[in-house]
UniProtKB/TrEMBL annotation:
Domain of life: Bacteria
Region Disordered, residue ranges: 62-84
Transmembrane portions of the chain: 153-174, 194-215
Protein name, as recorded: Uncharacterized protein
Keyword annotations from UniProtKB, A to Z: Membrane, Transmembrane, Transmembrane helix
Length: 265
């Protein structure tokens, strides 16, 4: 008996409730914020990057793997918050809805069996959901190539600014010591070291501002990708722990009915 005969929309509602209980929205949001955090650290002005390292990474604080996980490798529990009473109640309601819709056309004894089957593995569901989340590949284990390109540019302009500053300091020191002053090359009427210092600072800040919209857009994509992958894992738990026992009872009912009809004919 196919899953859509149980009621695909009802099963979808069950997946929604389990996703919320598993903390999928929280993990997806943490993925988005982690992307922004890491992107800003990789593409921001190198002089102030140290401050960002003092902030906790939103995703790593949940103790989640960021790349593929070997199916044979055991994974520990996550730090995703446990569902509150409202979320647990929503899961119970969704499970009841699946059972009621599946048991609707059945005789009373079989309807009772369906309801019992739907709840038969509910105790195992929280751990299964946590494992499903922990084994989801969030694709956050590598840096995009454009991060590295922007990072290279930021370091280039930072080195130019530092070189310009040191050049100016050296010239000032020579003047203080009464030595012959440095003859700076000029860009128009402005000494080259001044251009290097101010230009490096301005370009670095400008690059940081220009990449912010790109970071926000890419972080939203990372969030959607993580949410879709997490929901896929949750859907597997729904099918294995709730839908499969119900389908087993429905299959047994179908076999019993066929056997009864054959005996009558």
């Amino acid at each position: 008996m196919a899953e859509d005969e149980i009621d695909r929309d009802t099963v979808h509602g069950l997946t929604d409730a389990l996703s919320v209980a598993a903390g999928v929205p929280a993990v997806a949001e943490a993925t988005e914020r982690a992307y922004q955090h890491r992107a800003a650290q990789a593409t921001g002005w190198p002089v102030v990057r140290g401050w960002r390292r003092l902030r906790a990474d939103p995703l790593r604080s949940l103790h989640l793997p960021e790349g593929p996980v070997d199916p044979s490798t055991p994974v520990g529990t996550t730090s995703v918050p446990d569902p509150d009473s409202a979320r647990r109640a929503a899961v119970s309601l969704a499970v009841r809805s699946v059972a009621d819709r599946a048991a609707g056309p059945l005789p009373a004894p079989w309807a009772t069996a369906v309801n019992t089957a739907a709840r038969s593995r509910l105790r195992d569901v929280p751990d299964a959901l946590d494992q499903a989340v922990a084994r989801t590949n969030l694709h956050m284990d590598h840096s995009p190539s454009w991060w590295r390109a922007v990072n290279g540019l930021q370091w280039l302009v930072t080195v130019a600014a530092v070189a310009g500053l040191l050049w100016l300091v050296a010239g000032y020191a020579l003047r203080v010591l009464g030595l012959p002053p440095l003859d700076y090359p000029k860009v128009g009427a402005v000494p080259l070291p001044t251009v290097m210092l101010l230009g490096g600072l301005l370009v670095g800040l400008l690059v940081g501002v220009l990449v912010r919209p790109l970071i926000r857009q890419a972080s939203r994509r990372a969030r959607r990708r993580a949410e879709n992958r997490l929901r896929t894992g949750v859907a597997e738990v729904a099918r294995e722990y709730i839908v499969a026992p119900v389908r087993a009872v429905l299959h047994s009912y179908a076999e019993a009915r066929e056997a009864l009809e054959s005996a009558r004919s």
